[in-house]
Amino acid sequence: MMLLKNNERFFHVVLWTGVFLVLIGFGFFTTKWHQPSAKAMRFGVTYSTTYASSLGLDVKQSYLNLIEKLGVRFVRLPVYWSDIEPKQDTFEWSQLDDLVRYSEAHDVKLTLVVGSKVPRWPECYVPDWAEKLTEEGQQKETLQMIQSVVDRYKTSSAVERWQVENEPFFPFGICKQMRKEDFLEQIDLVRRLDERPIQLTAGGEVEPWRSVAENADIFGISLYRKTWNKTVGYFEYPLTPEFYAFRASLLSDLNKKVIVSELQAEPWFSESITQKPLEYWYQAFSEKDFQDHIRFARELHFDEAYLWGAEWWEYMRIHGDDRLWNVAVDLFSKK
Q1: The domain spanning residue 211 has which CATH number?
Q2: CB 110 within 8 A of CB 158
Q3: pTM of this prediction?
Q4: Does residue 36 belong to any structural domain of this protein?
Q5: Strand 159-164 relative to strand 198-202, pairing
Q6: What total number of domains does the chain contain?
Q7: Is residue 202 in some structural domain?
């Protein structure tokens, strides 16, 4: 048994090492001469209430600042199950209601993300009471929660589309492995409840796309160029826009719209934010990095990109550093 486990580990190490080397090779040997798309690209943001709160921000006010000061008009808004149903069958809607109503009043279009795995670490937001259930029991409760959210907001003029789960099969976060049949059951439920498009997502670099994309109306990928690991520290993926465009072209027979659902616009935090001074984190993701990532996204020739890190720009700004905020001002003022 131990030999089998060791062989499995060795196989996975070899497999992922091979994939990574192929990606590097593709990045080095594709052309370095890019042209931004001639058509306008729609930029939005992901806004995480849990992340804003963890940074000590006023959740409602920081959201208002994004809309009123920056001019953001497209927001991907995760619905955190542990927040809206802290006790079984007892829902707390006030915060989400406020953001949706405000969005309606200011012509902001929302992608509401529903499910047990939604954006921001630790990725899975299953309430404590639901964690104690069997897999079948937890899936039943997940479906009931999703139905409650969709039924509540499907009449909202702000809701443009639904996203079901977030990168459901990508092994990242403190999550149990999702069963495909459960995922498909959630998608089917949302389709029956509302006619709005359904967005599904996958990791942009190494995760397979097709098995998720084939069930989507809109397919989103994450795009992180400057990451960190314990072995090499900060590292920039040597991939060009052609890599992502080529992968998208392989889905052309599915006739799906492909977008960037997460475009990195903040540092990859290697440790707790409070463990380093703000200038350290700025050097990990600077004004130039932000501008380069926007330029990179334009060269994909996709229609949309949702920036990841809006809460961080606000945090930096209120702590006296508005350099990242000003890049966003320039971006959204020219939309």
Answers
A1: 3.20.20.80
A2: yes
A3: 0.89
A4: no
A5: parallel
A6: 2
A7: yes
